[in-house]
């Protein structure tokens, strides 16, 4: 089968690899109809998340059709259409039963204290092959796979695999309540989804900070207030917009690959910290293999965290879902301490939130589709990775169509486009078939 495979820093390939097989009674084999590229995938190629094994299939987002099940999978049968939550959990340990699926005691071969397991990641994260492939083996399938109604199409469902659960989790971590003013640092896919999730959870105002123009436009399409950190100092802007108080709740949707402003007052203010940021970058990514402007690690690993702490109101709460790997050792704890901030962070407990999000989409309460700004075939995946990595205009979220049989084509879900939290007016942003030179398979 075809799969996107990691061979080293700055080196991914579309390879022919063996099809997966059932290895455990609770496994299932899923034929992938749609996958996607995530910012986390870029960490492995840039070098900001080490420990990858050569030959690992990438990807942790997928929608597909069950092809085969092990004898321990009693709730699914071949032909069932499913969404695959990105993290893997057993469903029986005390953590899973309390809803902390990302901290499952049994999923990681390294033992109960080894941490989160997810598809297509490093050996420390379970060493599982990923989902940017024609078929995938899903461990603990009786728990992990979430059935899909045909009213939820592939374009909606693929964003329920990781992006929307993580954004929902980030809003929960930030403790958003009715009327809160929320600042979201980062307008990539998670930040965009966090706008809708914050609104559903009761936010009164939503301010989004980023430096990429088309991502800020997409946030404005969702009626968020936007701050361009290349045009103004984002901390000063958020404080000014909130009457000198700061945001009640902040979501850090950036993480280790944060970038410094290229110009403007924020760039001037940070100039004296260049040596510190260079040290942080080398610490976060001691090995790098950039190709010109591609596969370049972020040049300010702690910047999003620093901005989040500074723009938060006293006694506010910060929810961090941007990835900070173990080798990152810098956080502004002193500033957070002096402001009595509550800090919450971690890997999303996907399986806890996916079923409810599926129901929201099926009921028309939420339509995530417009966040997909590019739709390409798997044969174009490597070029799509490069465009996404460089944050080129129009490449906010990329879906990979693998095979059409059994899928529900984008726009054909009965609930499509009706949700109150829909990204308004952006359906036309999805690249057309002619633009990408193929069909939506």
Automatic annotation (TrEMBL):
What sequence ranges are listed for the domain Enoyl reductase (ER)?
A: 8-400
InterPro entries xrefs: ADH-like_C, ADH-like_N, ADH_Zn_CS, ER, GroES-like_sf, NAD(P)-bd_dom_sf
The Low complexity compositionally biased stretches are 412-431
Per UniProt, the enzyme's principal EC class comes to oxidoreductase
Provide the E.C. number(s) assigned to this enzyme.
Answer: 1.1.1.-
Similarity comment: Belongs to the zinc-containing alcohol dehydrogenase family.
Protein name in the entry = Zinc-dependent alcohol dehydrogenase
């Amino acid at each position: 089968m075809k799969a996107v495979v990691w061979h080293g820093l700055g080196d991914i390939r579309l390879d022919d690899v063996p099809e997966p097989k059932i290895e455990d009674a609770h496994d299932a084999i899923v034929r992938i109809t749609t996958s996607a590229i995530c910012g986390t995938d870029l960490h492995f190629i840039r070098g900001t998340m080490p420990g990858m094994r050569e030959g690992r299939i990438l990807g942790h987002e997928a929608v597909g059709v069950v092809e085969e099940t092990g004898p321990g999978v009693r709730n699914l049968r071949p032909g069932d259409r499913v969404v695959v939550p990105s993290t893997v959990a057993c469903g029986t340990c005390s953590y899973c039963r309390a809803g902390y699926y990302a901290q499952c005691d049994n999923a990681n071969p390294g033992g109960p204290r080894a941490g989160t397991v997810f598809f297509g990641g490093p050996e420390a994260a379970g060493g599982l092959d990923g989902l940017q492939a024609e078929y995938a083996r899903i461990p603990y399938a009786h728990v992990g796979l979430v059935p899909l109604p045909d009213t939820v199409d592939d374009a909606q469902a693929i964003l329920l695999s990781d992006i929307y659960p993580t954004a929902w989790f980030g809003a929960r971590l930030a403790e958003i309540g009715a009327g809160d003013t929320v600042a979201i640092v980062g307008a990539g896919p998670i930040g965009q989804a966090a706008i809708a999730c914050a609104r559903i959870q009761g936010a009164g105002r939503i301010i989004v900070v980023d430096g990429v123009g088309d991502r800020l436009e997409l946030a404005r399409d969702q009626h968020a207030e936007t701050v361009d950190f290349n045009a103004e100092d984002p901390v000063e802007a958020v404080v000014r917009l909130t009457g000198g108080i700061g945001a009640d709740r902040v979501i850090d949707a950036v993480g280790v690959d944060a970038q410094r402003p290229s110009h403007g007052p924020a760039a001037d203010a940070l100039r004296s910290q260049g040596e510190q940021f260079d040290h942080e970058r080398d610490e976060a990514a001691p090995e790098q293999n950039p190709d010109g402007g591609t596969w370049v690690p972020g040049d300010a690993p702690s910047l999003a965290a620093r901005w989040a702490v500074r723009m938060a109101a006293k006694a506010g709460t910060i929810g961090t879902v941007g990835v900070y790997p173990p080798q990152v050792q810098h956080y502004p704890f002193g500033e957070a301490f002096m402001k009595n901030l509550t800090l919450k962070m971690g890997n999303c407990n996907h399986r806890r939130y996916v079923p409810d999000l599926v129901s929201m989409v099926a009921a028309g309460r939420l339509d995530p589709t417009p966040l997909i700004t590019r739709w390409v075939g798997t044969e174009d995946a490597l070029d799509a990775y490069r465009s996404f990595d460089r944050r080129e205009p129009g490449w906010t979220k990329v879906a990979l169509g693998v095979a059409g049989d059994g899928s529900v084509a984008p726009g054909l879900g009965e609930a499509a486009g009706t949700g109150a939290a829909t990204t308004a007016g952006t359906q036309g942003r999805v690249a057309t078939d002619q633009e990408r030179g193929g069909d939506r398979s």
